[in-house]
Amino acid sequence: MKNKIFRKEDDFGQFKNLVFSRTILMVIIAVFIIHFVYGFFWKGKFANLAVIVFQRLFDIDYVQALKLYQMTLRNNMDLIFMVMIAVVFFIIFRIYLNWFVKYFMEINKGIDALINEGTGEVLLPAELSAIEKKINTIKHTLEKRKLDTQLAEQRKNDLVVYLAHDLKTPLASVIGYLNLLHDEKQISGKLRQKYISVSLNKAERLEDLVNEFFEIAKFNLTNIVLQYSRINLTRLLEMLLYEFKPMFKEKNLDCHLSIAEDTMLRCDADKIQRVFDNLLKNAVSYSFDGTGINITVTGQDENLVITFTNYGDTIPEEKLERIFEQFYRLDSSRGTGKGGAGLGLAIARQIVQLHNGTLSAKSSDGLTEFKVILPCK
Q1: Which pTM value belongs to this model?
Q2: How far is CA 99 from CA 36, 103, 105, 300, in A?
Q3: Sheet containing 367-375: which strands, arranged edge to edge?
Q4: What string of pLDDT tens digits covers the 377 residues of the chain?
Q5: What domains sit in the chain, N to C, each tagged with a CATH number?
């Protein structure tokens, strides 16, 4: 802590030295001027000069001018000297203040450039280099945040357009097959069953797309408040696997859970369940048919480590971090049925981070692993 304080003070060392040297210079100038004024009034020829001025100004003789000098100036010399010192101090202080305020004006220009989002770096005098660096750091941070927001908004808008376009296809199919069932009275039972099956599949796809719209609409976790409770993590994961049995059966997947009996965790149960639900959906969607999904829970210091592993296409290294971005879809094609709204992993990471945990991913040789680390307490 002390080293950090000293470092911050040293950031303004040049400015402090400049202020100190300017202050010493102003004091020397003030002393010199006061000394000059003192010598001019008391030891100089000020009296003779004043008498001559009075003689010529009022057309009087020397004795009368001398008396006038004594009455008006000589007898009030202390007061006049004090006034002169005050005037000198005021002038020097004004000059000093103007010089000092100049730095605030420079800082104000830098802040204006920051507010107005001007291009280029903010430049300040060399003695304010520490402030210049901080302003430019803030400027770059704001520019990056703005760019990230614009990219996220653009991805969101593109995704809405894609989903709106994709809604038409299953809807048109459902309407088409229902019309066939409605119009053809003498249809065979086998063909009727085929039409109903196709309509059901398209309707389910339509439901998935509508759900994605809801996900986009309600995606706002910035103001979320966690409701902590102590839960049985073992029971939660077992219940989740039971709910996913139809999806496992559809792709002939074998899911294995490895966790100690009655493992307890303090968390927001609903939010954490959503994390595991999103990770499991992702594992099912991108697993090869006939492979397996493994969920392992282990203890590590004061944390619980929950890993989800599945066998599928290897995720390229450059995409491993991007999969946690909002509205980013690993499978950018829209016809596969895999691509969701690109929110599941983003929501999962935000929830885990709100619990002071981490969510990461790695993928190699067809094996993909998502690791969740959560504090036990």
Answers
A1: 0.51
A2: 25, 8, 10, 60
A3: 254-258, 292-300, 303-311, 367-375, 358-364
A4: 444 444 444 567 777 788 888 888 888 888 888 777 777 666 556 777 777 887 888 888 888 888 887 787 777 777 877 888 888 888 888 888 888 788 888 888 878 877 777 667 777 777 777 778 888 888 888 888 888 888 777 766 766 665 666 677 677 778 887 887 888 777 888 888 888 888 887 788 777 777 766 666 665 545 567 889 999 999 999 999 988 888 898 899 999 999 999 999 999 998 898 899 889 988 998 899 999 999 999 988 889 999 999 999 998 888 887 888 766 665 544 334 445 556 678 878 888 998 999 999 999 999 999 999 999 87
A5: 2-116 (no CATH), 157-218 (1.10.287.130), 229-375 (3.30.565.10)
